[in-house]
Amino acid sequence: MNIGAHIPSKNAIEEIKSRKGDTFQIFISSPQMWKSPKPREDVDVLQDYDGPIYVHAPYLINVATPNNKVRHPSRKLLKDTCKVAASFGAKGVIVHGGSVGEGGDISVGYDNWRKALEHVEDTGMRVLVENTAGGKNSVARYMDSIERLWDVIGHLNVGLCLDTCHTWAGGIPTIDAVKGFKKLVKKIDLIHFNDSKDGFESSRDRHENLGKGKIPKEELEYVIKNAKTDIIVETPNGPDAQKKDIAWIRRRLKK
Ligand SMILES: [Zn+2]
């Protein structure tokens, strides 16, 4: 079990050392652009890193949508991201579950996910579906929908990333989320460990530093003790605040 943070991708090793983490997550292209990542110049450095490295795919990606104009570039960008992530031995590429939009048929979204995973299969990269906080037609917001998605894609090279801010704001009680995810995939691949600025089921995705937000501390502590997997903080306010968040987790692991 490794603990780390989402950090800038430039000088990543120094960045994570300064936060005292032993795993990290990076973007390898702009998170708000449709541009594919370039090959990394620091492949050797990243390959030599002794902890797992995770790559977060751009936010624009929505592989579930029935809209061709978004789904096709989403698949391409996901595949290009998986290829570059594979070049330095990343452990997984994290992608938000996406949605089928207003009035969309959610079962089409599950099938689109299957097609996207089959499209990237030959990169060998494991894709981690991350649960999301908002939207009524989101594929990976509510537990029953995540379960139905898994019926369709669970046999492929895919795992789950549980974001504690998203489960909370999305309306899955934290402890239920950990239990439900574990039941579905046996081992949760990754925890995005964030507090939330907003209330339960607020549908808002605003991360907060640990212990400073609205998620009850006992619920966060439950995740630390029971998730039994790598933990990445995606918390705000810079390197020092993230270093404190990592220390916050380590203190509770020892208790
Ligand atoms: Zn996240």
Main CATH class: Alpha Beta
- Could you say which overall geometry the principal axes of the C-alpha atoms support? globular
Radius of gyration (Å): 17 Å
Number of helices: 9
Mean pLDDT: 96
- For the record, the count of structural domains works out to 1
Find the CATH topology: TIM Barrel
CATH architecture: Alpha-Beta Barrel
Biggest sheet overview: 8 strands, parallel, barrel
Q: Cα distance, first to last residue?
A: 16 Å
Q: Biggest sheet, strands in spatial order?
A: 1-2-3-4-5-6-7-10
In which range does the helix fraction lie? 40-55%
Q: Any ligands, ions or cofactors bound here, and which?
A: zinc ion
Q: Strand-residue fraction?
A: 5-15%
What would you give as the CATH superfamily? Divalent-metal-dependent TIM barrel enzymes
Q: Which class of secondary structure composition applies to the elements? A: alpha/beta
Give the helix/strand layout:
Layout: E1 3-6, H1 12-18, E2 23-26, H2 43-48, E3 53-56, H3 68-87, E4 92-96, H4 106-120, E5 127-130, H5 143-153, E6 158-163, H6 164-170, H7 174-185, E7 190-192, E8 195-196, E9 207-208, H8 217-226, E10 230-233, H9 238-254
Parallel strand pairs: 1-2, 1-10, 2-3, 3-4, 4-5, 5-6, 6-7, 7-10
Antiparallel strand pairs: 8-9
The structure holds zinc ion.
Residues 130, 163, 192, 234 line the site of zinc ion (ZN).
Task: Briefly say what this structure is.
By secondary structure, the protein is an alpha/beta fold. Helices cover 41% and strands 15% of the residues.
